[in-house]
Specification:
Shape: globular
CATH superfamily: Gcn5-related N-acetyltransferase (GNAT)
Structural class: alpha+beta
Largest sheet: 7 strands, mixed
Distance between the termini: 28 Å
CATH class: Alpha Beta
Strand order of the largest sheet: 1-2-3-4-5-7-6
Order of helices and strands: HEHHEEEHEHEE
CATH topology: Aminopeptidase
Radius of gyration: 15 Å
Length: about 160
């Protein structure tokens, strides 16, 4: 069943489905990961995330996986470990749609804050997060592997107001 997220294009909402990730999704997920990132996660990392029970989702469009998100929940906070849209589908609002979905689902877990890291060089992703009311919390020096060494990560946070 398609998820209805506020302020999203209704025709897009009608086509997109987000469901729990399972082991049979890993082949298409790793394919997207390898296309999207110069230093992608391995299939073993994705397996470990599923094995330990991180909240993991896939976004489908016409029954094809076009994105995914993995969230680690801990007391009081959610940490978005990986969120990705297939490069062929980027720029169409699907990343924002998936991000809002992850936030909406995380809110149900009695959390106060959502954290994530983004490469300093990933300006499009950073702009998306800032437009969704994330703010810069700090920097993790040399956090990501890069072609010529290591790259800093910008730590972003979004504080949530709990409903009473």
């Amino acid at each position: 069943m398609a998820v209805n997220i506020d302020n999203m294009n209704e025709s897009l909402t009608a086509l997109v489905d987000i469901r729990t990730m399972n082991y049979s999704d890993l082949k298409p997920v790793i394919g997207i990961e390898q296309q999207a990132y110069p230093q992608p996660w391995t299939i073993g990392i994705f397996r470990d995330c599923l094995r330990v029970g991180y909240t993991s989702w896939v976004m489908t469009l016409d029954n094809n996986i076009v994105g995914y998100g993995i969230v680690m929940l801990s007391p009081g906070e959610a940490h978005i470990l990986n969120i990705c849209i297939d490069p062929q589908y980027q720029g169409r609002g699907l990343g924002r749609y998936l991000l809002r979905y992850l936030i909406k689902k995380s809110r149900k877990s009695d959390i106060d804050m959502i954290l994530l890291e983004v490469r300093r060089s990933n300006t499009k992703a950073k702009q998306l997060y800032l437009s969704e009311n994330f703010h810069e919390l700090g920097v993790r020096k040399a956090y990501y592997p890069a072609e010529n060494g290591r790259e800093d990560a910008i730590i972003l946070a979004k504080y949530l107001v709990q409903k009473e």
